[in-house]
Amino acid sequence: MRLLSGDLSPYSAKIRMQIYAMDIADDFVFDLPLAEFVTGRLKDISPLGRIPILETEHGAIPESEVIAEYIDEMYPERSMLGQTPIERANVRVISRIGDTYLLNNIFLCLGQLATPDRNQGVIDLLMGQLLRGAVALEEHLASQGYATGGEVLTRADCSLVPALYMCDRTVPRLGVANPIVGHPKTEAYWARIQENEHAARIIVEMDRGLKARLDGTEQQRVQEAMEAAAALTKR
Fold this sequence. Notes:
With 235 residues, the protein is mostly helical. Helices cover 59% and strands 6% of the residues. A four-stranded mixed beta sheet has the order 2-1-3-4, covered by helices on one side. It is globular, with a radius of gyration of 18 Å.
């Protein structure tokens, strides 16, 4: 299977962490066709045109949570969703908080970084919603062990690691306090989870992606990919 994924994409990162933790990476190829990504031609693979996209022998699957469910069902003996209905419900709730209440609001606000005339009203609204999500996470998060408690890594952790990474590394660039700070369980969890080998690997990859974006390396790679694609069309 081929996973279209980018280092800094948190929704892609959650799928990569799941794959690493399930020890099934040998069954996947990780790729991102930059020219297609930048020009919007990923829609030729998936109508949504967003990563991650999982290409299988039966067709392409978009949306990170759908991909996560698919992988769990393909490898049921290694599933990271929990053993009982209540465990699975808790995993899904925390995953949804990470994806929807944290990441969605961060993504909607990131456009403000690209403009010299930031709309403070937009920032205040979205970051207020982000803080609301952080408060909810603090209530649902286990005080010990992994996200849902205990010593078993679940898909809740796979969702939270990239979400909390974005809270830690990106939100302060908007002039807003890191929403992790001031929430004791979340702060303690973020410190603990970074000791996990799979979480640490994802953080290294996302740091690499962030560095490439900030130092211009990413844009240079995009330009090179665009030039290579243009050269192919002229042949």
